[in-house]
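Field: COMPLEX_INPUT
Field: COMPONENT_COUNT = two
Field: RESIDUE_TOTAL = 1042
Field: MODE = joint
Values follow.
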Amino acid sequence: MTLEPGTGPASQPALHRALGLSDDELDAIVARLGRRPNDLELAMFSVMWSEHCSYKSSKPLLRTLPTHGAGVVAGPGENAGVVSIGEGLAVAFKIESHNHPSAVEPYQGAATGVGGILRDIFAMGARPVAVLDALRFGDPTDTRTRHLVDGVVRGVGGYGNCVGVPTVGGELVFDRSYAGNPLVNVMAIGILEERHLTRAAAPGPGNLVILFGSATGRDGIGGASVLASATFADDDPSKRPSVQVGDPFAEKLLIEASLELIEAGLVEGLQDLGAAGITCGVSETADRAGTGIEVDLDAIPRREPDMAPFEVMISESQERMVAIVRPERYVEVAAICGRWGLARAVIGRVTADGDVTVMSEGRELARIPARALTSEAIVHDRLAAPPERRRQAPAPGAPIEAGALLPERGMDPGAVLLALLGSPNLASRRPVFEQYDSTVQANSVVRPGHGAAIVRIDGGGAGQPPRTPTRALVAATDGNAAIGAFDPWLGAAMSVAEATRNVSITGARPLGVTNCLNFGDPTKPDAFWQLQEAVRGLGDACRALGVPVTGGNVSLFNEAPGSRILPTPEIGVVGLLDDVERRAGPAFRADGDTVLLVGRATPGLGGSEYATLAGLAPEDGAPAIDLDLEARLQAFVRDAIARGLVASAQDVSSGGLGVALAEAAIWSGRGAILRLHVASSPAVDLFGESPSRIVLSARPDDVPALIGLAEAADLPVELLGTVGGERLVIELAGTGATGAAEERGSRVADSVDVAVRDLRHAWDGGLDRALGWRDAGSAAGYAGAGNAGAGAG
Amino acid sequence: MTRIGVVIFPGSNRDRDTLRAIELAGGEAVPLWHETASLEGSAAIVVPGGFAYGDYLRAGVIARFSPVMRAVGAFAERDGLVLGICNGFQVIAEAGLVPGALLRNRGLRFLGRDVHIAIERFDTPFTMLAGPRRPLRVPIAHGEGCYFADDVTLDALERDGQVLFRYVHDDGSVAGEAGDPDNPNGSLRAIAGVINAAGNVAGLMPHPECAVEALLGSDDGFGIIRSLVESAGAAEREGRAPRLAGSAA
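Field: COMPLEX_OUTPUT
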């Protein structure tokens, strides 16, 4: 693609199409400008009107989400959501995708995904305290998938480890639909003093626009439009120049310098430069303040000579920030940047005319109303149509015949449990997590991979004594794509339920939801329908659970030739634990404790790991969700933990009750003797993934109070048995129990009876086996040029 | 209160953790910016973890040339107490303050997890209050932590009691060299940390400063931090802490 210098009307009639703009979008641009755009202006529009920056397809849907809630001080539209947590502090958090860059160049794609989301956090004035990454890939035994997994994991680690923000959790899911289009969703969390909350706005005509951090190069030209907003062929080398290159060392300096500038009160506004580069940075900050910005193109430091104006304006070179500064404070700003060894330049000034103007050598190369690039970007009214097959599917929760298709007669539930524990989606994530630094900053209360992440906030330091009681943030990400594949409303609602439940079972109160909506091409009616339904499910669940949506990101066009990803609403939740000493974990605590199941399995094995193992099509019976029951369940468990009645609390989700119990046993090294009343069928009760169920353990003395509390909330409770021993024994009982034993004339099906040691062995080695990482010592080291992160932590 | 200096390079990332651990141990933690040649009256110095200057060439190789490290070198030469942790160990090894070198982990991957280490000597300024519990459970987080030296040096280190920390199994028995997951980086003779011949400079790869509170999973490292703070206080009281030209206090 070549562009003439930014003068005159568009030089090639079809240039807009080459830049990814449709004919009607060009018409809309002409209408907003009152004239034809020149080449530079067209390039600026093309990146700002990309789906990634403009939300032109999703905006009408996203407007329906509940965004207000207790303590929300910054919501969608800001760099990150911010919720007040009292004591003068607030938490900033957001999840964002870096899917397409990671498909093209996994190491740098993932690394810059971490870098980009961290900048969103510290641009708000918050110190990043945690990263979670939700990753999705194709079949783990596939060579190309292995290459992608290896690169992405190294990239997340290479960046996060160096920059000194602990990676505390996340997800790793394999499904064939992601083979050509992996998902890399990264969530970051930061803590700020509320008085330092900083907006990405450019108030005050006459103020200076300062660019600091790395110089601007040709990397990432058109990343937002070329990569993030179009489908693409697998491994297309022509897209590689669109991938940005990360420098975590520069980012670390940028964090420290930015926070120092904010604490010193030197910036009027701060914006990170990510997608669409300087064009985005200046147009968004100006539009938010109702001002304009005149950019002095010649003042922008470059990595290489002879860059065209459009390249400078839309480059996505990483580790750059734009600060809006009063002229009289410039000297102090420059001094702080200098101390951190960061280049800085005055690249423009705030104006009152509302336009983004690009000047070079005294000539005006471009002039566009800031709002035309951002808040008044085109919005498309896309067509939504459900796929045909949906009308044939039974209603969620319907007691359908799917169970009859399952190989449950004669199945050995213990063998099934071991197979599930060792399967790629349920096995321990240790081989991945241990490539990340999860302890830096010395606030990580739990190690990754054992339920929700818990990060202390009032630990003191720098002369500050620790606060008592000490509070903590609790965070989880969850995305149910398997259910979403045939019922996107349900998939999104279950994702919100699971992520908030994972936070609630620690005792923490969910503060807000951030979401990353990974979907297909929105110009295709069935793909847009999936998005529409998922947003509706997201909104319904958030309203029912009383949790606001504080921000997020939409990643569309996740299609490779011949395949579309499962619709994947990735939900990130942050909660607040008022006293970290009064928390519950998922592992059993003591022998003799009583094990209870709160909530009841509903029919429907569709979308479960068991169904996958059994070769069952996901359409054959989705579980149902009762959002009101879910809300009562979460309120109950928070209350019970606060009252000190709970020894352990474990969520029933992937792999069902059997896997939930096995994990509680593995993580504690304690067995249990349990008896499960089978209401539907052994498969449904043991391995079904219907939501709104929690496994609790409690001291026997506390059980009556616990049951009373559950019954007061109208929640079903079942006493399962007792913690103890070295084996997990689950006797299947009741009229619903069928199977080999029944055929022998007994009413009781075969039971699970497996040594905890064997459960651990199956669970711990599953991922290494699936990825062929058993011989990790011989894995080739990543030798990409310029990657920090080889060294220490 | 005894002042303990914590060196901060661009790219240090466990500096705040270290400052905090020193405060918990009763010391006054003093951040020392890499461009300063003054140690500001510190009675002991910690070189913390991170990626000093990005570790682009090789871990620790650039940091050793910084003004503050020249001052730390002079401080160490005059018997000042210096502890290097993780990247700090790499920096003081590059600077020749302790013997040996840290190579890439044998698995060629960054490793962040808990390990067990044993303290080989309790009569040093860094370990005197850390006994007799063994083994200690402390986190590691590094990509270049494989301790290496030639056999002659290793034999001498063993003979002279300069092996201060070793990776062990959870029962306290010494981990193997290669292929034993309890020796996470494949360090020769499972060496996790060493002390110099004079006994005033030590380095280790694991992070005792991130294991100072039971809430965070382990407080097994606190004894090491307390030992340092107490030793520095004693050195100060007895007038053994070196004073460098240009030092404050």
